[in-house]
Amino acid sequence: MLNKNEYDHFMNSDQSSADAATHEYELELISDSSTMIEPIKSPPPPQQPTPLKSNDKLGLSERTLSAAGAAVLSAVIVNPLDVVKTRLQAQAAGVAYSHPMTNHTSRMAVFGPNMMFADLRCSPTCTRAGVHGTVSICPPDCFEYKGTLDVFYKIIRQEGVARLWRGTNAGLALAVPTVGIYLPCYDIFRNWFEEFSAQNAPSMTPYAPLLAGSLSRSLACTTCYPIELARTRMQAFKDFNGGKKSPGVWKTLVDVLSSVKTSENMKNVQSYRALWTGLGAQLARDVPFSAICWSTLEPVRRRLLSLVGEEANAVSVLGANFSAGFVAGSLAAAATCPLDVAKTRRQIEKDPIRALRMTTRQTLMEVWRDGGMRGLFTGVGPRVGRAGPSVGIVVSFYEVVKYALHRQQHAAS
Fold first, then answer.
1. What would the DSSP string read from start to end of 207-246?
2. pTM of the model
3. From CA 14, how far away is CA 321, in angstroms rounded?
4. Which of 15, 215, 342, 413 could form a disulfide with 363 if both were Cys (CB 3.0 to 4.6 A apart)?
């Protein structure tokens, strides 16, 4: 039998030997397992798509491709509203849309009192034409435009649906280079101005979109202005060619140059200057338009994209940019409508001497004298109806293509 002291001593020594054995076993287990067991690594968190930011480094070719695609889509969709707006403004400037032979004096001078002449009704199905001698003539209000919907109705009835897309070829020829210059330059200028102001004058950073939009639009308008001149003339004037093909962009520009060369008082004036007739009015309209548009669009777009956050995808980028573009384009179009009226009036002026001597201020005063405030806002409905969707389509398409290219580049890297 062991007394209590001997029993305690035996148990302590036994426990010590057991602890030592356990410690040696743990060391062996650790040394053996270190060669077999790899540490468990937690999987990386899934990457969420991020919206394209203003400082993403896309090349100029990618930006231009995006802008050109947006321009083509916009030019085709909104061209009818552009035709309607131009017709209303041209009518207010004195352009007559009735056939010249509906005037009795002109008809008698050309054909004589007994000469048979073709039907001069506003459309083959018009029931309001009255017979005057051997000619069926519609009353003057059949040829007068009374509003946006009336222009649509009369163009379709008198000239056919295809006439609403008159000037689309000029619009495409204009939109692709103009937007191809405008949007990429806006991106580049905005990034430069934001970086410069952030380092030197942080309080000026919010004005970077305004300055970038104005500068890029001025560059694009000046470069492509002759095509804009041709498009306005193609849309404004009604052709009476008896089924012949209407003049295109090139023929319209040649006619502008010919009118200068045949004018006795324009011998010492370079004829090419006529191709930039009304450029001052165009810049006076487009520079404020761009300033208002981009200074409105940027904060609205960034606010909408911030609501989406890290869950942004192509659909949300499209929706945010189209909504912001629609709002900004509509506001800018309404605010600059008087300048658009002056621009149209200068571009459709057929007297080359008067066209080169007119100024934007003189034109606005003339419009005010003729029609007052209503005259200054002639065509504001179709102009706003055109500009809102047009800016929305161009900006959203451009940004979605940029987003897709950015994601592709990110995935490749």
1. GHHHHHHHHHHHHHHHHHHHHHHHHHHHHHSPP-STTPPP
2. 0.71
3. 80
4. 342
